[in-house]
Amino acid sequence: MHRRRLAPLVAVSVTATLAPVLATSTATAARAAPPSTASSSAAKGALDRYVKQKPQWKRCEADTPAEFECATIEVPLDYRVPGGKRIDLAISRIKSTAPDKRHGVLFSNPGGPGGQGLYMPLSIQEVLPESARQKYDLIGFDPRGVGQSSPVSCDLEPEEENWLRPYKEETFDKDVAWARDVANKCKEKTGDTLPHITTRNTARDMDLLRAILGEKKISYVGVSYGTYLGAVYTQLFPGRADRFVLDSAVDPARAWRGMIQWWAEGAEPAFDRWTEWAAERSEKYGLGDTPKEVERTFWDLVAQADEKPIEVEGQLITGDDIRSGMRRAVFTPQYATEEFVELKKAADGEPASAKKLAAFAGPEGTGTAGAATDAAEIPSDNGTASFWAVVCGDNSAAWSRDPESYRQDAIEDKGRYPLYGDFASSIKPCAFWDKSVEPATIVNNKVGALVVQNEWDSQTPLPSGQALHADLKGSKMVTVLGGEGHGVYPNGNACTDNTVTDYLRTGTLPAKDVTCEATADSNAEARKNQKGDALPGSPLPERAPDRF
Question: What b/e readout covers 193-223, taking b as 16+ CB neighbours within 10 angstroms?
């Protein structure tokens, strides 16, 4: 693990920190914060006590650098009642390498929902050039309900965490029962806490942490789900957002059912691109001389595996496994082709290696993404429990309460998006979740931000990033044409890396949107990420195929 230090904190008045509950200075802020159930003076007094906390910083772990420090603070479970129940928030920092050049604090989030961000400063430290590192104290935190921040659990068994399920008439009733059981188990285990594990409250936690640290503003780097968290922060606290980098972006209007459905919609053009790529190299790979022939080869293998699963080293691969695996693989055509060729060898009875079939090795949606690593006190299902808390609780209005509507959507979307439509649209636990305690956040502001997006992103497709750019009217966008993979910065591409670094270093956005061309090296990095590499310094496999 890794290194660094921090500069003196700046004093901020307590009154300036009361927006988490009492924001009324602008129309945006008034809409953003729900009315407090406590009196104004009582709420101010409760928040005053929170703001006056002094984190007890200490070395995070014996095997981490001494300059990487951790602490725990308390935050209100419900910001409408700040004098009520409190929960813990695990925080970390690495101080600026040059206090005389320090600009402020740089918060970060690795994605999820349910991603553990406590170790993110180690990641940021590795990738930021020294000229930018000098500008910031790097601040990490596990979002509420996640990791070491009062982690939630639903007591789910591993098979219950498998949530991306293809539609089949004969299994749909069982899938409905599964979804209902997950929702009920979450309510029984964590009912009082679960409604408050939301993106809006995590954004409020960020602002409270800003105040505790004595900062007037925060800068921020968020990846995937972290872009939505960052966007919500800009909406709730527009005057406190400094330099915001939003990498591989979520469309706020589609959080969250619509974002899951993006996985199906975005896969279809990627699939077409793959068939063209493979056809152009038919002599090498032998999948077909035209895109239509490649497509037919693919669906013939799916049908064969539906009838009789393909066995590779004792593992059975079904047609649904092939569709699911190909959904994310096709965003990198070479990777998809090599994996598919290996699978076809196995189907033809030739020796094949399971290690070369990572895309198809079992169903996605299991609980491995975000599961506890070193901390024994973190429940094994914490990643999944916190995922559902946010995905269902941020916007319950996006989820129908009628199970039959999911059946119809799955059937229709399998027709529209045959690769993955039924996986994305079929029943989820959110159908049985309690109503959100707050309405969804409408992101529509002029805060400056830099949205960074690959053209071929499997988790947050290009139109999703473009939508966030349109919602953040003060933003500029960096688009990497031909860029593959989820998560852009840094990727070794001078065009993208320099644009992001210069913004973090100077605070000046590009004069206009930037278009970069992907390079062989930057897409090679994407291929590594495609295979599930963990984000450096983070226990979460950031590129997990069933997370943002």
Answer: bbbbbbbbbbbbbbbbbbbbbebeebbbbbb
Question: Would you say residue 538 has pLDDT above 70?
Answer: no
pTM: 0.91
Average pLDDT over residues 196-216: 98
SS (H, E, C) 75-102: EECCCCCCCCCEEEEEEEEECCCCHHHC
Token duo for residue 134: 């000098």
Write phi, then psi, for 5 (nearest 5 degrees): -140, 175
C-alpha span between 336 and 272 (Å, rounded): 12
| pLDDT tier for residue 17 given thresholds of 50, 70 and 90 | very low
Sorted by sequence, the CB contacts under 8 Å of residue 380 that are 6+ apart come out as 367, 371, 372
| Residue 292: CB atoms within 10 Å | 11
Mean pLDDT (the chain) is: 88
User: Which DSSP state fits 113?
Assistant: T
Q: Is residue 500 packed enough to be buried (19+ CB in 10 Å), middle (13-18) or exposed (0-12)?
A: buried
Are the C-beta atoms of residues 430 and 392 closer than 8 Å to each other? Answer: yes
- pLDDT 10s digits, 360-408: 875 554 443 333 344 558 999 999 999 999 999 999 999 999 999 999 9
* CA distance to 128, 326, 452, 496, per residue, from 519 (Å): 20, 23, 16, 11
Cis, peptide link before residue 113, omega less than 30° from 0: yes
Which residue bears the tokens 């013939």? 300
Question: By three-state DSSP, how is residue 422 classified?
Answer: helix
In this prediction, residues 329-337 reach a mean pLDDT of 95
Residues 113 and 546: beta-carbon distance below 8 Å: no
Distance CA 443, CA 335 (A): 36
**Other C-beta atoms lying within 10 Å of the C-beta of residue 507:** 14
- Residue 5 confidence (pLDDT): 26
Distances (CA, A) of 330 to 160, 354, 420, 515: 27, 19, 12, 23
DSSP 445-460: B----EEEEEEE-SSS
pLDDT digits (tens, 9 = 90+) for 431-465: 999 999 999 999 999 999 999 999 999 999 999 99
- Print burial letters for 30-50: b (CB count within 10 Å at least 16), e (below 16): eebbeebebeeeebbebbeeb
What's the CA gap between 21 and 211, in Å, rounded? 14
Angle between helices 257-280 and 291-307 (to 10 degrees): 120
Phi-psi region of 7 (alpha: psi -120 to 50; beta: other; left: phi over 0): beta
pLDDT tops 90 at residue 539: no
- Across the range 19-23, mean pLDDT stands at 45
CB 280 within 8 A of CB 256: no
Residue 134 to residue 441: CA distance in whole angstroms: 34
Q: What percent of the chain has pLDDT over 90?
A: 79
Tokens read off for 146: 């996640």
Compute the radius of gyration of the chain from its Cα atoms: 23
Task: Give residue 170's Cα distance to chain centre.
Answer: 33
Instruction: Please report the DSSP string for 491-524 in residue order.
Output: SS-HHHHHHHHHHHHH-PPPSS-EEEE--HHHHH
